[in-house]
């Protein structure tokens, strides 16, 4: 019996955007991993290169630890352009190092079904995980998710995601305490030119890091606080300087789960920080909190509500 052929015109049209990362890496002569595979190569390895409903494009070829805000702007623009050109969903391949940051930018500022995927093992590994992750991401994209998702070994929302393990194949998790707010916009505002610094609290942390950030032009700060959202006295003095100057401050936690609860009094206590104008980042990691604040500032700058 002749097998029925699938009509590509009835399938979900997917744009497949490659940016580099381990999923595209092979070892060079010295044994160093470098991104070398193209979008077409990745689709072929996943057995999806003959799918007429999937169109591949190379946006950039970078290790994700090298990404700049300008690079993220370029990726967001590519996602929007792909949707404008007829894609119903977009799959992005990316490195895992900064995936949670790009994922937050996509979640906050792109009104398109997007699935981000990656790999923990390089493409020339004897047992690479990239091809299976790409197949799973394409399947997820065909379901047209209402909010962006990450597919790396498992599947989780983009908002609230954090890399939980440096080598485990199921690399990302979302704290159950995470609550996703409505997106800021469906029309990405440029991030490049803005600066939000992360300041880490620890026993005896000085205010110098905050002062340095302010003196060199930071537009916002994220405090990676201890416990449920607390910092020491000296660092508190620096944070209060930022708040008094109108610089927005988000308080995240160094702790992997449970989120921020601004309840403690006294200098540096979370409740005191909140009364002075600092905001809780909830269960977001410091890295995602930073990108969330950058997106807020970008939209405000574009729409005339910021400097």
From TrEMBL:
Domain L-asparaginase N-terminal: 13-174
Active site: 22 (o-isoaspartyl threonine intermediate)
Organism listed in the record: Corynebacterium bovis
Protein origin, superkingdom: Bacteria
Asparaginase/glutaminase C-terminal domain boundaries: 195-297
Protein name in the entry: L-asparaginase
SUPFAM superfamilies membership: Glutaminase/Asparaginase
Range of residues in the leader sequence: none
Residues reported in the UniProt entry to bind substrate: 64, 96-97
GO molecular function (one): asparaginase activity
PROSITE patterns in UniProt: ASN_GLN_ASE_3, PROKAR_LIPOPROTEIN
Gene3D superfamilies: 3.40.50.40, L-asparaginase, N-terminal domain (3.40.50.1170)
């Amino acid at each position: 019996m002749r097998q029925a052929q699938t009509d590509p015109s009835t399938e979900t049209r997917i744009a497949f955007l490659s940016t580099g990362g381990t999923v595209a890496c092979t070892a060079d002569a010295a044994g160093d991993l470098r991104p070398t595979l193209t979008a077409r190569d990745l689709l072929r390895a996943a057995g999806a290169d003959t799918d007429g409903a999937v169109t591949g494009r190379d946006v950039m070829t970078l290790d994700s630890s090298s990404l700049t805000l300008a690079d993220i702007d370029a990726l967001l623009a590519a996602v929007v352009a792909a949707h404008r050109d007829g894609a119903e969903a977009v799959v992005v391949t990316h490195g895992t190092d900064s995936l949670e940051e790009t994922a937050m930018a996509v979640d906050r500022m792109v009104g398109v079904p997007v699935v981000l995927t990656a790999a923990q093992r390089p493409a020339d590994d004897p047992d690479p995980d990239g091809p299976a992750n790409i197949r799973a991401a394409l399947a997820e994209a065909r379901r047209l998710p209402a909010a962006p998702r990450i597919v790396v070994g498992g599947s989780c929302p983009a908002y609230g995601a954090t890399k939980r393990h440096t080598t485990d194949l199921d690399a990302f998790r979302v704290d159950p305490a995470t609550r996703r707010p409505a997106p800021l916009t469906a029309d990405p505002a440029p991030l490049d030119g803005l600066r939000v610094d992360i300041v880490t609290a620890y026993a005896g942390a000085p205010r110098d890091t905050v002062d340095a950030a302010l003196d060199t032009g930071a537009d916002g700060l994220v405090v990676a606080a201890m416990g449920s959202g607390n910092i020491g006295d000296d660092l508190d003095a620096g944070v209060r300087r930022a708040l008094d100057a109108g610089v927005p401050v988000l308080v995240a936690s160094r702790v992997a789960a449970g989120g921020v609860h601004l309840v403690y009094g006294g200098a540096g206590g979370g409740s005191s920080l909140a009364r002075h104008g600092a905001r809780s980042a909830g269960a977001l990691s410091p890295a995602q909190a930073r990108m969330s604040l950058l997106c807020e500032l970008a939209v405000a700058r574009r729409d005339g509500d910021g400097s």
